[in-house]
Structures are given as structure tokens and as C-alpha cells.
Amino acid sequence: MRRLFGSKNKKIDRILNKAKAAYDDKDYEVAFNLFSQAASMQSPEAQYWLGMCYLNGYGVILNLNDAALWHEAAAEAGWVDSAYMLALLYMRGIPEVKKVSGQNIFDKPDVDYDNLKPDWDKSRHWAKYAAEQDLAEAQALYAYLISHETKDPEIITQALEWYDKSISHDSSQGYMGKGLLLLRLGESEADYAEAAKFLEVAAERKMGSALHKLGVMYETGRGVPTNYKRAAELYKEAAELGIRDAQALYGVALKKGQGVEQNFIQAETWLRKAALAGDIEAAVVLADMNGHGNDDIPPNFTEAARWYVVAAEKGHIAATRALGVLYLRGMGVPKSLERAVELLGFAAKKGDVVAIVSMGEIAIQLPESNLQIDNVIEEYLTPGAEQGFAVIMFNLAVALLHSNSLNPDFEKEKQAREWLKKCCKEVIPARYWYGRMLLQGTGGEQDTDKGYAWISSAAHEGIIDAQMLWANILLEGNSNDGSALAEEAVKFYKMAADQGSVPAMFSLGAVYGGGNHLEPDREKAQEWFRKAAEKGHPKAQMMLGRYLARGLAGTKDLDQARYWLQLALKSGEVDAEIDLKQIDDPSLRDKISEIKNTDFETKSGTAENQSMDTKKEAEKNPGKVEVAPGLFFVKKK
After folding, report:
1. Span of 51-55, 145-149, 319-323, 603-607 with lowest mean pLDDT
2. Which residues pair with 98 in a beta bridge?
3. What is the pTM (predicted TM-score) of this model?
4. Mean pLDDT in the chain?
5. Which SS3 state, helix, strand or coil, does residue 105 take?
6. 3-state helix, strand, coil in the chain (%, to 5)
7. What DSSP element (H or E) covers 111?
8. Torsion angle defined by CA atoms of residues 110, 115, 120 and 122, in that order, rounded to the nearest 10 degrees
9. Per-residue pLDDT at 477
């Protein structure tokens, strides 16, 4: 222990020896009483120890104000260690004691520990005092205090000199401080490598901040070779020492399985510790994990909502938006369109792109939201589109078309077409809508060739509506080789069917049924009609019933035919009633097989006629896109 002078009073020394022995034995009440006795005799050393008792709550109630008072008394008497402790206390902030008029002297003082205000001037004063007395830890502290918010070359030079003095005493704080300063000021790999040398020494001595920062360096490959395993090891050591940021980073490493074996349970444990300590990003990751679930644990939307609330209350925009989506869907929280609009609107006004998209889609798809589409266009979508966000340009175009369907206005059609043109290279669904507008001459001149090109592009990129429309166009095409176009159309119908499109399944049944430049294949036709029928497609149910009643695919099954025709009739296909009568009337049953296939096909409808339903539906509800998902629903490519 460093001091300018020691005690020359033997009585004080005897008391101090007994006090320190009791302190070492953790008999803190005895130690406190003895230190108090010696301190009252003006012993700086006793005042130091009394300050430490108040600082740690040993033998007395923890009280930072009293700790500061005793350390200041000792420091002013020349006790260097108290000067150092006083510098730390002022750097952290000493709480104000709220005085209450008429307060009983025995009442516990009302101390505000949540709003500590550092006093940097006093902290620097006492740190410098102790540093000039050659106290290594104080030299490192003073170097930090003068340099932590500046890049002034003169001050940085002074700070480095103080760090070097501290390092000359082999101070772990000195090694860590210099490493962190060099890392902050570094501009090249050589600078970062130099910083790493000092941080390595501090990390070996289990300095938490050094372990954390060095871990980041190994993860990013800055100043050291990239080494995820080493980074995870350093994060773990720092996390176990209570470094909040390291707890979050170790949790993420465990979640990803990066440098360490993947372990979702441990990942959640460490992320929870960081989140409870105030790390907002950790709270968001924790929410995402619960929203996603994993192979072993299903999603827990209630827990996800809890952590999104924590982050949203701190102003985290993405968390606010994700919480809004949960309210919109009633996942983990009561379903509330009003609350969803409030949260998504807040995030949208802060510039969150997904929230802006969601606001537009809610206004289009959910009229009960009371969001006026023209207001959403003006307040959210147009500003976002003008900033160059392609997905918002697309949604703006869709919103304009929707608004135009309510209040026809050529200017809105023109604007929609212009926005689609701007974003169609980046937003694949926009290619379909832009192509359709070109084909129809909506919002400008008709351009069939370009319209075909954009629709074909969207179809090749997997847009179901574009695949259906492109297949229709191919079937309608005037060519000497109609069968080749039909085969190409079948390819796109299959693409759409593979994505779950029930109309595409029906269209395939109709194409294979004949009358579309292809040789009929009744077995394939019945197979596709069955797939669509099982998905609830009324016309497919009727067609499957007819096929089974007539045995067109080789097998006649009147019971199954009756089953499917009855389903079709219940769904509104009135023509199915005639087929049912033919099955149930013995006088008509034998005549069923005599009906010519050509007549049958004419009644069944072709893929071209049926798939036009998709086009009509799209025209009624342009841009029908699912509401933009929250954080944990986003699938990154």
C-alpha cells in the first residue's frame, strides 16, 4: 500500500493491526468498529479502510457518500490509495442524497443510485495526484481519464506516456488501457496488431474488457488472424467475469455454433444475462430465437413478445416493428389491429423499411384498419420510395393501383407504372405487374413485346401469377407449332403447381385433357384434377367426378364420382347436378359412356379459360402480398 507517510502512533497501530486481522477473518463488524476508532484519531490509513467498508458494505450498510467522505479525508492527508479510490468514485458518480424536511435521523436516506453523475474534473484531479505519487493503477486511470473522449495528438501522447509508466510497474490496467487506446485510434493493420500485443498481456491476466475486445479482434480478423474458436474462448472468459457485451457475443456464438459447439440452451442463458443487464441487441436476438424456435424447441411467441417489449421500450425500431407484427397476427400477445398500426406506424416514421411496407399492405388488405390508403401513400410510401427503396416503390405502385380502383384517376395509373418501371429490375413481382400494365396499355401506351418480356422474366424467377399468365399467353400464341408452345405452357403450369398453386394444378388437368395442341393424356389429366380437387378446387372436383363416372382414365368408380360431384355441387358448381342425375338415374347411366369426348372437353373448359380466373382475381386485388414479416420471420438468402 502506497502512502506519503505512515503512522507513528503505537496505539493507532495496535488498533489497526486488530482491525485488519478481523477484516481478514471476515469479522467485518469488529473490523468496522476498530477502523472507526482509529479513524477518529485522525489515522489516514484507518480512514482509507473505513471508506472501503462503506464502499463494500462490510460491517455497515453500503453508502457511497460516506465512502467518498472517508476516502477524501484520507486522500487530503496524503493517503495515495484513497486518492485513487476517490478518483474511481467520482468517475462512476457519487449519488445525491435526497433530503426530506423533518426526516428522522434514524430513517434510511433516500439515495438515487440509478442516476449517477460522474464528476470528471474531480476524478482527474485525484487520479493525477495518485499517479504523480507513482501508483501504477492511478497512472493507468489518469491516462484513460484524459484520453477517452479525444483524439488530440498532444493529449494522446501524454496518455501513452502515463500508460507506459504504469506498464513499467507491470500493471495489468496499464497493458489493457494502452491496448484499448491503440485499438480505438488504429488506422491500419499494423496499428491493430500493436494494440493486440498489449491486450494479449491483459487478457492473460483475466482483464475482462481486454478479453472482450481481443475476442472481437479474433472474430473480425483485425490485427490478428481470424480465429472463431479463439474468439469464442475469449468471449466466454469475459462473460464469466460479468462483461455484458461479451455475454451477448458468446450467446450469439453459441447460437450460430461459431467457434464453439452449437447450443441453443446455453446461448439463451448468456443472451438472457446480457439482456437483463441492459443489452438491447441481446434482447432482440433473444426475441428472434424464441420467435424462430429450432429443431428441438417450438417457437415461443409469448417469450419473443416479452423481449421485443423490452427492446421497444428502449427505442429499438426493428423490435418495435416486430412487436407490431405480433399484435397484427395475435402471436404471443392479444390480437390488436389498433396496437399493431400504432407500433408499425411509429417504426415507419423512424424510417424502418419493412414497417413502411407493412403499413401500405395493411391499408390495402385490411380496410378495418381505418388506414386511409391515400394518407398512407402520402405519409409513408411516397417518402420511402423517393429515398430509393425498391420494395417501397413496388408497394407504392400497388397502393396507387388499389386507390385508383376506388377512385379512377389516369394520373395514379401513370405514377404506378413509372414506379414499377423504376423497381422492376430489383423487385421480381414488380416485373409481373409492369408487364401486365404494358400489355393492357394501363397508365400509358401499350407495348406488347416489352410486356411479354417482363412477364416471362417474372415467370422464370418463380412468380406464380406470372407463370400462370405466361402459360396462358403461350397457349394463345399464333404459331405453326402449337404443340411446342403448349409444352412450354405445361412447363410453367408445373412450376406454379410445384409452388402449391391449385389453379395451376387444374390447368394442367385441362391441358392434358385435350384440345390444347397436345395429344390427350387422360391419366395425367385425372391425376392433376385429383390434386386440385383435394385442395378444394370446385371445378377440379367436378372434373374428377366426371372422369371417374365415365372411366376416361381407364377406371370407372361411380361411388367416388358421386362423392366428388357432390362436393363440387356444395361449392357452387351447379353443372355437377346434371352429372349426379346421370349417375343416379339407371335410364341415363348406360348412355354416359356414349357421350363424345370432344363434347365432354368443350364442357370441361380449357386451361386457357380456367386460368383467366387468376388474371381476373389479380385485377380485382393487385399486389396481394403478405404483410411484411417481423425480425424472426425474415428469411435471408
Report:
1. 603-607
2. 110
3. 0.72
4. 87
5. coil
6. 70, 0, 30
7. strand 110-111
8. 0
9. 74
Distance CA 435, CA 466 (A): 9
Taking residue 98's Cβ as centre, other Cβ atoms within 10 Å add up to 10
Closest-CA residue to 546 (of 480, 507, 499, 599): 599
Surface-to-core class of residue 554, CB atoms within 10 Å of its CB (0-12 exposed, 13-18 middle, 19+ buried) = exposed
Whose cell is 489515522? That residue is 43
| pLDDT tens per residue, range 137-151 | 999 999 999 999 899
Q: List pLDDT tens digits, range 331-366.
A: 999 999 999 999 999 999 999 999 999 999 998 888
- 537, containing H or E segment: none
Torsion of Cα atoms, 585 then 586 then 587 then 589, to 10°: 90
Q: Alpha helix locations (H) across 461-575?
A: 464-476, 482-498, 502-513, 522-534, 538-550, 558-570
Contacts 24+ apart (CB under 8 A), 570-575: 571/536, 571/538, 571/541, 572/538, 573/538, 573/539, 573/541, 573/542, 575/542, 575/603
Q: List CB contacts of 175: < 8 A, sequence separation 6 or more.
A: 167, 198, 199, 201, 202, 205, 207, 210
Count of residues making up the chain = 637
Q: How far apart are CA 85 and CA 126, in angstroms?
A: 9
Taking the C-alpha atoms of residue 135 and residue 127, their distance in angstroms, rounded to an integer, is 9
Does the pLDDT at position 548 exceed 70?
yes
What is the pLDDT confidence band of residue 476, given thresholds at 50, 70 and 90?
Answer: confident
Q: Cα 604–609–610 angle (5° rounding)?
A: 75
Neighbouring C-beta atoms of residue 21, cutoff 10 Å = 13
pLDDT digits (tens, 9 = 90+) for 59-73: 999 999 999 999 999
In sequence order, which residues have a C-beta less than 8 Å from that of residue 176 and are 6 or more positions away? 140, 198, 199, 202, 207, 209, 210
Q: What is the 3-state secondary structure (H, E, C) of 206-226?
A: CCHHHHHHHHHHHHHCCCCCC
CA distance 143 to 156: 9
**CB-based burial, 143-167: b 16+ in 10 Å, e otherwise:** bbbbbeeeeeeeebeebbebbebbb
Three-class secondary structure of residue 57 per DSSP? coil
Say which residues have a Cβ less than 8 Å from residue 472's Cβ, sequence separation at least 6: 489, 607, 608, 611, 612, 615
Question: DSSP secondary structure string, 413-429?
Answer: HHHHHHHHHHHTTT-HH
φ, ψ for residue 111, nearest 5 deg:
-110, 130
pLDDT tens for 238-296 read 999 999 999 999 999 999 999 999 999 999 999 999 999 999 999 999 999 999 888 77
